[in-house]
Amino acid sequence: MTGYQKYRGVQVEGASPLELVLLTYDVLIKSLNLAKFAGKEKNYVAEAQHLSRAIEALVELITSLDSENGGTIASSLGSLYAYMNRRLMEASTGGDIAGAIDEVLALANTLREGWQGLADGDSSSQSRQVNGY
């Protein structure tokens, strides 16, 4: 395990639910950017690996939703995450992969900005409990 991996492990272990959501978005966005770059370089193996990682991040976001306490927010996010996931999967099986990556990347960046705004406006005690997660 590298020093960076150890650092990330400590970062995840000590993270609040809101911080974990932001970390998951970071993985999603980084993976999409790497997939986009790999596609431009015609490195299709790397592109597929990074898309797979992006899909894993979306699955993590979907499974982390608290539909019992999150109400319509959790339901709406679940639908959006499922759409993003479906869009990447369909594109990776013969569709416009670059277009799908751009679309999902734009959505992920917008959503992450919203979560970051919530984190910035939240006190440390409120960041422990997030509606929808």
Automatic annotation (TrEMBL):
Entry keywords, A to Z: Bacterial flagellum biogenesis, Cell projection, Chaperone, Cilium, Cytoplasm, Flagellum
Superkingdom field: Bacteria
UniProt cross-references to Pfam families, sorted A to Z: FliS
InterPro entries reported in the protein's UniProt record: FliS, FliS_sf
Coiled coil residues, start to end: none
Residues in the signal sequence: none
Keyword Kinase carried by entry: no
Main location: cytoplasm
Name recorded for this polypeptide: Flagellar secretion chaperone FliS
Lineage, uppermost ranks: Bacteria, Pseudomonadati, Pseudomonadota, Candidatius Mariprofundia, Mariprofundales
